[in-house]
Amino acid sequence: MVRVKCNYYYLGYSMVKNLIIIGSTGSIGTQALDVCERLNINIVGLAAGSNITALEEQARKYRPLIVAVMDPEKGRDLKQRLSDTAVKVVYGLEGMIELAMFPGADTVLTSVVGIAGLVPTMKAIESGKNIALANKETLVTAGKLVVDAAKAKNITIMPVDSEHSALFQSMAGNRKQDIEKLILTASGGPFRGFTADQLEKVTIEQALKHPNWNMGNKITIDSATMMNKGLEVIEAKWLFDVDLSKIEVLIHPQSIIHSMISFVDGSIIAQMGIPDMRIPIQYALTWPCRVKNTIERVDFCKIGSFTFEKPDFKVFRCLSFAYKAAEIGGSMPAAMNAANEIAVSLFLQGKITFTDIMDIIENVMENHKVIVDPALDDIIEVDGWAREEAMRLHSQRSTADTRA
Fold first, then answer.
1. pLDDT reported for residue 403
2. Who's near 237: CB < 8 A, 6+ residues apart?
3. Domain residue spans in the chain?
4. Which of 54, 101, 179, 389 sits in a 20 to 30 Å window from 23, CA-based?
5. What secondary structure does DSSP assign to 326-386, as a single string?
């Protein structure tokens, strides 16, 4: 494997040759497969949570050596379906770990949503594989553990999220000590400019209509609450080893500038492109090279102008929660993340209101006893506790509403 060094950043690997995709049936995973097909990247393994219909189609098309399903029952079903092929089928957490450590791949793209990506990512790092990371929660919940493990194995974590890819690209050729500020841009989601009262009346259908990006349901709701941007703030802190005070969020409704870096001499470098995740996915898989594609280009005359606004931390409280969790550190980000996953799930099921998401997260964080220096087992335990606490709070609120 070719490795390149420079005086500014450690630049880890050349173009990916053999890839494992964890979360292959989701939005990022399916777009990654499209990119891989164009680049002729070999697919060694694929994994999904439970969508075995889509996973079976992918397995028959790309002929990976191994596929994994988190749901054991669905995994056994898929094994029967693929019995006429040479594809190895594994399932459950043990199966996901086996996939992540499977020999023959140089890189693992982690695009599964939620903390489900943490353990497989850690195991992939342990086995010496580079990581193309599209799973924010891995660094949000266990940033120090993941970064330390990557350093110990001398492997690269390549950002796939458009914002972190933009920051990575804007850093090229610059010294870390010359960075004044990382500026993460945000579209503002479908409720930009809403008041707190207006947010109380938001419906599921409205929350799922993102103005610019095509994403999965959970990430789309996170974007609507601005928790997604909060998670990205924590991820940026760990990816680029910068102090929280140097990370700023700026609303940019056009979603053309994906993020910027302000330097100590007053210069600002930004990375731009249309809102299409195939661009950062391709860059993560081809870096340090750039490969021509047919993706639409930015038409500046058509766009006309760029606008910027400060985020409203009082209305979109999830952004405040993320900064607070990152500042407290330890196990608090893991507790916040788990509470958010449960709250978003409850909202999508129609069991709570949009603003209840924020209330549940806030209450779980208030009730959490922080572990200052958590191990991986601690993170997993805190995740479980926070999920139970979020459900307990929901049940408690439901009972109170019924009595009222």
1. 56
2. 143, 243, 244, 247, 326
3. 4-159, 165-275+290-317, 329-404
4. 389
5. HHH-TTHHHHHHHHHHHHHHHHHTTSS-HHHHHHHHHHHHHH----SS--HHHHHHHHHHH
Burial 248-278 (b: 16+ CB within 10 A, else e): ebbbbbbbbbbbbbbbeeeeebbbebbbbbb
How far is residue 357 from each of residues 107, 155, 216, 367, measured CA to CA in Å?
35, 37, 18, 16
Residue 166 falls in which region: left (phi positive, over 0), alpha (psi -120 to 50) or beta: alpha
Upper half-sphere CA count for residue 161 (Cβ side, 13 Å): 26
Give domain 4-159's CATH superfamily.
NAD(P)-binding Rossmann-like Domain (3.40.50.720)
For the residues of 142-161, what is the DSSP string, one character each?
Answer: HHHHHHHHHHHHT--EEE-S
Q: List the chain residues with pLDDT less than 70.
A: 1-14, 400-404
Q: Find, among 357, 73, 331, 38, the residue nearest to 225 by Cα.
A: 357
Q: What is the pTM of this model?
A: 0.92
| Contact partners, residue 255, CB within 8 Å, separation at least 6 | 185, 187, 212, 213, 275
What CA–CA distance (Å, rounded) separates 250 from 262? 13
The encoded tokens of residue 317 equal 């409280």
CB distance 366 to 324 below 8 Å: no
Query: Under CATH, which architecture does the 329-404 domain have?
Result: Orthogonal Bundle (1.10)
CA distances from 393 to 41, 218, 355, 361 (A): 47, 21, 14, 10
**Amino acid found at 156:** T
Unique residue bearing structure tokens 């994403």: 215
Please list, in sequence order, all residues whose beta carbon lies within 8 angstroms of the beta carbon of residue 245, skipping any fewer than 6 positions away: none
The radius of gyration of the chain from alpha carbons, rounded to an integer in Å, stands at 21
Q: Which residues does 253 contact at the CB level (< 8 Å), separation at least 6?
A: 187, 188, 192, 211, 307, 309
pLDDT (0 to 100) of residue 401: 67
